[in-house]
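notes to self, project folder thing:

trying the whole complex as one job this time. last attempt i did each chain seperately and stitching them together was a nightmare. two parts in total, labels are on each line so i dont mix them up again. if this works i'll redo the older ones the same way
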Amino acid sequence: DAKTTQPTSMDCAEGRAANLPCNHSTISGNEYVYWYRQIHSQGPQYIIHGLKNNETNEMASLIITEDRKSSTLILPHATLRDTAVYYCIVREGTGTASKLTFGTGTRLQVTL
Amino acid sequence: GAGVSQSPSNKVTEKGKDVELRCDPISGHTALYWYRQSLGQGLEFLIYFQGNSAPDKSGLPSDRFSAERTGGSVSTLTIQRTQQEDSAVYLCASSLAQGYNQPQHFGDGTRLSIL
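result (full assembly):
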């Protein structure tokens, strides 16, 4: 999987939008961008994924730049329960395993 | 709906004992993955199943580790003669099919502690 770069930590006030950036400058044409989060003592939770178009679901929006070298995960109205480590992953399309490789992620702290 | 279920949630055992960890994937998911996560570390891939077969066992750290999946559903991960370095959270994930466009959904893991 291509390497990703994320800030180590971010803070966000409750009720505000949390914008989490990710750089993936070596991404190739068949690699998807995935976002997961992990809250302490729980398994990773899938959030959203995309290839080149922007995506939105009930949890978040994913904005991918036109050159696909970076993306932003947007939590529109952050709550205290969104405090977690957020992982950005680019995932190769070929191969049988499609295993996930997590980096160090961004620790998001949502505050009152 | 029901997510990935893992049992036990916690397991404490003595060094040298065998342990068996269980994973119940989401119904209908054909792909199943085992990972482990040590304290403060990222995910370490162990093994992948497509149906009952395991085309990728490359992540199993030693021959003390084995896994099987029967009926294309439940999977068990067995660790024989446990060592202290086996202490970790063992995570199971499943997806509708294998492939880059299929999200993997995780259980909450089994926290294994070897005394």
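what i see at first glance: The mean pLDDT of chain B is 92.
need to look closer tmrw
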